[in-house]
Amino acid sequence: MEPASAVGLVASIIQLIDITIKVKNYIKDIKNADREVSNLSKHASTMLAMLTGLKCLMEEVEQTDPWFKALKGLDVKGGLFYLLREEMAERALRLDTEQKGGLKGKLTWKWNKKEMDGLMRRIERCKGIVSVALLGEHSKLLLAIKADLACMKEGVDDLKECMGYLKADMIDVKDGVKSLADSTESQRSAGAGKTTLTDGRTPSDWAKDSKKEAMVYLLTHRDTGE
Question: For residue 30, what are the β-bridge partners?
Fold first, then answer.
């Protein structure tokens, strides 16, 4: 896969969405899938919806916007989006090879626990970062990316643990749309750290107009049961 600098960040996100959908479709054919496989499908579905929302927001923002530029840091070689896309592509290829061998409808899950846990952690990290990105605030996104990169260097894969290092500066991503509305409204008069869309709306306005607030709230709470 090529990094975002070559194919464009939006196109790169679309690649990640398409590959994840492909893996999900293969999972449907897995024989006697256990709970871990079902959980992977569930979390991948949540990530897909969040990435789709992010793609829509990105298409409304100027590429020179600091928020958009911050997102590019996730898809440089070794970045979270880049690595997740590579990993999903590898899994899709392995499943595709098995399916072409005449085993459609009888696929088996051959990945070990370490591989599975690693993929799940990366998906969770992606969901956490995208939750912050959907707030549309460039300063908080930079903090989240900084925390993620620091954790990668230290070998820490748990995003919640990473965010704990910066909890004095970071919002709780589980607050979802409530934080989106509150923080954006409070900054509207100050004008600090605010992203503006090409038509003059803030991300909060965009979310309200396109009824994304309910979707983001659902996505950031559905896996926690809150």
Answer: 107
